[in-house]
């Protein structure tokens, strides 16, 4: 869509607004595509660019999938055997516990049939296209603005090969279907079994609205996704999964995870010196407040697009185990409320909010680039607590400021005419 058409659709926008400039969006996508190609080389053959192999997130996908193909899916869930597989495959090892449910393990087993670089490009390419499609359906002409705000997360995902685009797309497809009162919204809800801790908000909304057809479709999807890996990988995979979850819980308490990349209040408190117990208690309070605020907004009959944005934000504060790559979900919230935000802010305020958004979403990426890589030993204490985790307070500040902005009336110069009201997905 051209800039002129975007302005014609929404006359409250200035003609030179970067938030509707599709040429800028295309430039971002071209750069991200080039980054994906470079990342694929680093995964497949880093020696081609004179680099040493460094294990990154998609390596864990490929190794876990390879173990599943070898009939050893349960070994992926045990850190000792996972590290042995890392060393056998790459000659190096890293702290990458595998805690994804068996349905996702089966999924990465399919990807592992391909060379790692090809699998990376296929997975990231398709999931990114799906993510942009979902954002486009929500934000319309404001899609370039969403890409600008979420740029650090887009770069991070194209470098690591994580599944943030996929999970955010599933939540976005659910919200689009839900707002249109389609029972089919239950399908992406059920598919979120691959990361159930991110589906608390959308599950709660489904139950509050009593969308029983969507619940039945979601339940059937979950049951199917649980049965298939049981049949293909064997029932032992579930014991491995349960062992892996318990083991990772202990690692989380010990601070072995790279907590500077976590977005939870738990990680923030733990890295500032709070013990695992107090940090988890604070996390529980924040999670309850987040869920309570969602219920309050629903009871207050908030505008559907604002309620959808709130659901996306709540999803980021329920679990103590959230990473910066999960922040692709925040892009959905931005897509839902960006038009409202632009109507209520000056250019200076918009610049400040974008800068704060970049700091909140890019902190983990910058810390990864600037800090020294340390060898991982499971006997180490506080390995992940050496660097502060600051994304949670930055994200909370961004959300609180956005709430204040949304409570304003539109600026006089930006007030749309009746013919220029913004389209909504419902």
From TrEMBL:
Q: Which UniProt keywords apply?
A: Cell membrane, Membrane, Transferase, Transmembrane, Transmembrane helix
List, alphabetically, the InterPro entries matched. GT87
Membrane topology category: Multi-pass membrane protein
A single GO CC term for this protein reads: plasma membrane
Q: Does the keyword Transport apply?
A: no
Transmembrane feature ranges: 22-43, 104-132, 138-157, 187-208, 215-234, 280-298, 347-366, 387-407
What is its subcellular localisation?
Cell membrane
- Give the principal location in a single coarse category: membrane
One short Pfam name that applies is: GT87
Q: Which GO molecular function annotation, any one, does this entry have?
A: hexosyltransferase activity
Entry's family note:
Belongs to the glycosyltransferase 87 family.
Q: What is the official name of this protein in its record?
A: Uncharacterized protein DUF2029
For this protein's source organism, the top of the classification is: Bacteria, Pseudomonadati, Pseudomonadota, Alphaproteobacteria, Sphingomonadales
């Amino acid at each position: 869509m051209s800039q002129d058409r975007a302005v014609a659709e929404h006359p409250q926008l200035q003609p030179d607004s970067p938030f509707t400039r599709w040429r800028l969006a295309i430039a971002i996508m071209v750069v991200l595509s080039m980054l994906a190609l470079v990342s694929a080389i680093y995964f497949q053959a880093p020696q081609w660019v004179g680099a040493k192999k460094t294990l990154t997130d998609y390596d864990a996908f490929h190794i876990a999938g390879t173990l599943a193909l070898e009939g050893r899916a349960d070994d992926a869930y045990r850190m000792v055997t996972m590290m042995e597989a890392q060393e056998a495959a790459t000659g190096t090892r890293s702290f990458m516990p595998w805690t994804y449910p068996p349905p996702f393990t089966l999924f990465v087993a399919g990807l592992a049939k391909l060379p790692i670089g090809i699998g990376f490009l296929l997975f990231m390419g398709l999931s990114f296209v799906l993510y942009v499609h979902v954002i486009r359906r929500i934000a319309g002409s404001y899609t370039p603005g969403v890409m600008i705000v979420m740029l650090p997360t887009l770069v991070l995902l194209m470098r690591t090969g994580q599944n943030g685009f996929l999970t955010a797309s599933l939540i976005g497809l659910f919200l689009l279907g839900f707002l249109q009162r389609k029972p089919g919204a239950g399908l992406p809800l059920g598919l979120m079994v691959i990361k159930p801790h991110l589906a608390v908000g959308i599950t709660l909304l489904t139950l509050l609205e009593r969308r029983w057809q969507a619940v039945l479709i979601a339940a059937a999807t979950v049951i199917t996704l649980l049965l298939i890996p049981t049949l293909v990988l064997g029932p032992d995979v579930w014991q491995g999964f349960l062992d892996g979850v318990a083991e990772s819980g202990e690692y989380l308490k010990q601070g072995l995870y790279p907590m500077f990349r976590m977005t939870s209040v738990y990680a923030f408190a733990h890295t500032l010196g709070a013990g695992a117990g107090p940090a988890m208690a604070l996390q529980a309070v924040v999670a309850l407040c987040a869920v309570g605020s969602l219920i309050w907004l629903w009871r207050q009959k908030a505008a559907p697009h604002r309620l959808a944005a709130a659901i996306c934000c709540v999803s980021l504060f329920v679990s103590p185990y959230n990473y910066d790559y999960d922040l692709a979900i925040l892009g959905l919230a931005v897509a839902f409320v960006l038009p409202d935000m632009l109507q209520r802010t000056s250019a200076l305020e918009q610049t400040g909010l974008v800068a704060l958004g970049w700091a909140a979403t890019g902190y983990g990426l910058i810390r990864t680039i600037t800090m020294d890589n340390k060898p991982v030993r499971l006997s180490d204490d506080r390995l992940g607590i050496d660097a502060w985790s600051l994304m949670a307070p930055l994200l909370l500040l961004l959300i609180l400021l956005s709430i204040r902005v949304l409570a304003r009336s539109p600026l006089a110069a930006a007030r749309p005419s009746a013919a220029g009201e913004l389209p909504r997905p419902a």
